[in-house]
Amino acid sequence: MAIVRAFIAVDVPKLESVEDFATKISECGALLNMVEPENRHLTLKFLGDVDESSLGDIADVLRGVACGFAPMLIGVSGAGVFPDRHYVKVVWIGFRGSRPLIKLAHDIDNAMTGLGFEEEGREYRPHLTIARVKAVRDRDALLSIVDEYRDTQLGEMNVGAVKLMTSELTPDGPLYRVVCEIPLEKRAAVIEAV
Question: Cβ-count burial of 15 within 10 angstroms (0-12 exposed, 13-18 middle, 19+ buried)?
Answer without folding.
Answer: middle
